[in-house]
Design goal:
This protein is an alpha+beta fold. Among the domains are: 3-131, no CATH class; 216-298, Gyrase A, domain 2; 404-451, DNA polymerase, domain 1, CATH 1.10.150.390. The protein has 21 helices and twelve strands. A hairpin with a 2-residue loop joins strand 10 (305-311) and strand 11. It is flat. The two termini are 44 Å apart.
């Protein structure tokens, strides 16, 4: 159950009860202020109560100094006592800040009185406490079981965007494996690029922009014909490939002439002809030519294909291949709405918190695509474990396990002999604090009832 679910339930309970209650008399209405509870009113009341408390303390101290009796508790103004109880109630509500803010918002929407707002807070607190994990619960094992068991029903497929087999997205077990292992290179990296106002409504402009993103090397658009007998080399520019990418043949010819400026050249009908003087010049021209062929003609490094998709009333670019850092620098890109499914790249460009949220979202998406319902808290625990060191570490022998302090825990995962020998050489100490270590030596595990130590006569 999510926070939204139990907020809704609790609100319904309180609002339903509101109708059943008797009408409040005028006197009662005067005593209990029927005001909308806002964060400001709570802050004001806190200040008011603090003042009253301090003045009361001063009064008591003064009376003790004068040798008078301390005033009886019953003599305190009853409304002051009510406020104190209410205030203490709010202070003691150990709910996350976001839920407290939502309670205040609900109180405003439904015009709840102070009493009802407190009642709502109590109902929510009760439901919240029911959802909290018991102390000593083996959350790691529960999370592993919850993710691993339905993982056996995942598919082994690659998903395609509707109507285009160009851009593929890895789904199913391969994607889960990729995320959990924390691999530096995703098998099917993709990006979703939203555009700024002038581009997102115009299909032609968006199409042109999308084509300008494709990583094109000169070797993709040139064809070399060598004539050894006549000491000639002709480099043909493939117009059928340059036209869709909006590349100008004249510009490409200029690049070729500049790159091979030591040789005589003529540009005629999309072909650049080079004439050689000696046979030994072949090696030199070959080396120079190889350099040019590997250079980038245009586009962003790593983006192989692009596709224009209409989402709502605007055009969005989907890409095969990813390069978040470079795309964010481009003009015409809405920087707040650029998305890549490459987790390592996201964490490097936007920080580790972004990486953590990506792990949660991507794993949840794979599970949802396959119709598997998993409590998101299990995935969040896994994401926390992978990212708490400040970089994304996979659940592999070179990742999280490598950093464990316990030699037995490292040995229990993979390469047992290697880890035990290493620990023996270094003289490492085993403190038997974890689950695995205690199982190995046959001790009760410090989980669940094992965390309690009782002695009986």
């Amino acid at each position: 159950m999510t926070s939204e679910d139990f907020l809704e339930e609790a609100t319904e309970e309180v609002v339903e009860n509101e109708d059943d209650e008797e009408d409040v008399t005028e006197e009662e209405a005067e005593e209990v202020e029927d005001e909308i509870v806002t964060s400001e009113s709570i802050a004001e009341k806190k200040a008011e109560i603090q003042e009253k408390k301090s003045s009361k303390k001063k009064r008591k101290v003064a009376e003790i100094d004068d040798g008078l009796e301390v005033e009886d508790e019953n003599e305190i103004d009853p409304t002051e006592k009510v406020y104190e109880e209410k205030e203490r109630n709010w202070e003691q509500v150990v709910l996350p800040k976001k839920i407290l803010e939502e309670i205040v918002a609900i109180a405003e929407v439904y015009n709840l009185s102070k009493e009802k707002t407190d009642k709502l807070a109590d109902v929510i607190l009760e439901k919240y406490n029911q959802l909290i994990v018991e102390p000593g619960e083996a959350v790691g094992i529960v999370a592993a079981q919850s993710l691993g068991e339905p993982g056996t029903q995942l598919t082994l497929r690659t998903k395609h965007f509707a109507g285009a087999a160009e851009v593929s997205v890895g789904s199913g077990i391969q994607r889960v494996e990729e995320i959990v292992d924390g691999r530096s290179k995703a098998k099917y990296p993709t990006m979703t690029i939203c555009l700024t106002s002038d581009l997102k409504k115009d299909k032609d402009k968006a199409e042109k922009f999308a084509k300008s993103l494709i990583d094109v090397r000169y070797k993709d658009i040139l064809k070399i014909n060598e004539d050894f007998e006549n000491l000639k080399i002709a480099v043909e520019i493939l117009t059928e490939k340059t036209k869709p990418l909006y590349l100008k043949t004249d510009d490409i010819a200029e690049v070729l002439k500049k790159g091979l400026k030591d040789f005589k050249s003529i540009y005629r009908d999309t072909t650049v002809h080079f004439a050689l003087e000696k046979k030994k010049d072949y090696l030199k021209i070959r080396k120079e030519m190889q350099k040019i062929l590997e250079e980038k003609a245009h586009g962003v490094k790593g983006i192989e294909k692009t596709l224009i998709v209409k989402e709502g009333d605007e055009y969005v670019i989907k890409t095969s291949g990813s390069n978040l850092k470079s795309v964010l620098k481009l003009e015409g890109v809405d920087q707040e709405k650029v998305f890549t499914n490459d987790i390592i790249e996201t964490s490097k460009v936007l920080g580790i918190e972004a990486g953590r949220i990506m792990i949660v979202n991507e794993l949840k998406k794979v599970m949802d695509d396959n119709g598997i319902k998993i409590d998101v808290r299990h995935i969040m625990l896994l994401a926390d474990l992978m990212t708490f060191s400040g970089e994304v570490k996979g659940i592999v022998r070179t990742g999280i396990t490598k950093g464990k302090a316990s030699p037995f825990a490292r040995a229990a995962f993979e390469e047992t002999t290697k880890h035990l020998l290493e620990a023996a050489f270094k003289g490492e100490r085993e403190n038997l604090t974890g689950v695995v270590e205690n199982i190995i030596v046959g001790q009760p595990v410090k989980v669940g009832t094992g965390i309690v130590e009782l002695l009986m006569k």
